[in-house]
Amino acid sequence: MRLAIQQALTTELEKITPANGYAHDLAGRVYRGRVLFGEETEVPFLSILENPDIEVVENMSPAGGRSVKANYRLLIQGMAKEDPVHPTDPAARLLEDVTRRLFEIRDAVSAPAVGYLGVKGVIEFNIGHGIVRPADEVARRAHFWQHLDLVVVGRF
């Protein structure tokens, strides 16, 4: 289910394009599970990562199986070309596009039982706040982090 969620989220975030009314073009620029990017990676781009803090709320299988209700926390990292005077401004604008798309994904589901992102078992889609950061020793470009908390029921 984890991979299905991340694949569906990738597809949805790659819809951030000027043709769809956004300021950025992320078609083909959303990665999963990647933290290292060199100068050869064209900006803007996103990376979807699991937050290491996955909380199992309740084991739903009395036999101790893997059917659970869990808080599945994802981090979306975005990088944009820096402005020489105000380095984080482009990352802040990219974060606005990503946040807008996440709200569109959440609001498109009229019956959560169907599953957010089209994945049966994703019963909650909670958008956290984002934070924009300048380049540092870890990320050589200005970037943002956006939290996405999902509640998942089923095999996980």
Major pleated sheet? 6 strands, mixed
Please tell me the CATH architecture by its name. Answer: 2-Layer Sandwich
Report the structural category: alpha+beta
Number of strands: 6
The CATH fourth-level homologous superfamily: Phage tail protein-like
Q: Radius of gyration in whole Å, from Cα?
A: 16 Å
In what range is the share of β-strand residues?
25-35%
The oligomeric state is single chain
CATH topology: STM4215-like
- What is the rounded distance between the termini? 6 Å
* SSE string, helices as H and strands as E: HEEEEHEE
Shape annotation: globular
Question: Given the structure, what is the number of helices?
Answer: 2
Walk me through this protein's architecture:
By secondary structure, this protein is of the alpha+beta class. It has one domain (2-155): Phage tail protein-like (STM4215-like), CATH 3.30.2000. The protein is built from 2 helices and 6 strands, in the order H-E-E-E-E-H-E-E. The protein has helices spanning 2-13, 89-107; strands at residues 30-32, 45-50, 55-59, 67-79, 122-133, 143-155. Strands 1, 2, 3, 4, 5 and 6 form a 6-stranded mixed sheet that branches. A hairpin with a 7-residue loop joins strand 3 (55-59) and strand 4 (67-79). The longest helix is centred in the middle third of the chain and has 19 residues, at 89-107. The termini are close together. The mean pLDDT is 89.
